[in-house]
Amino acid sequence: MDREEILIHYATRGPSRGRKVPPAATTAMLLAALIPLGWFMHDSGRFRHVVSGELFTSEFDQNVVGNALDQPTIYKQFVLFTLFAVMVVPYVLVIRWLSDRRTRAGYWCFAIPSIILCLYLLILLMVPFWWLIQYVHTMGFTPRRVRGLAFGAVSFIVILAFLYWQLRPPTDVPAGVT
Fold this sequence. Notes:
This protein is mainly α.
């Protein structure tokens, strides 16, 4: 075997391939997180509210102010985003490590569900962040509101950086093997 054949052999049947799951299993594992999050997003109306633009054209509702967890408040929405992000991000990290993304099918079977998961997280974050922007615009700045704006901005950056990182193709694939 020459050097190129060895590289191709390693990329297609290498030693780490044994622990990698096939593309269909990758998609199935990601659907285990995507289905509950998608159900929550669509059932609560958040997805339609953001995607249709209603969120951005509505006036500020003072009922969203406060810390009550039994009301649709800004605080509660940030807590919901944080809970979903803390559950989804590590889960996707493990699946990224387990999945075989070195083939075109493996890459896209991982990429498409993980893009949708991150978009759902971003939409979930957009609701309280926009409400907080409206709140600050209506009532002015306070240290707590500034912390909320900083949390929202940093959360957007973290989720977008996570999305970029997870969509980067694997670097251990020799050129021309995919």
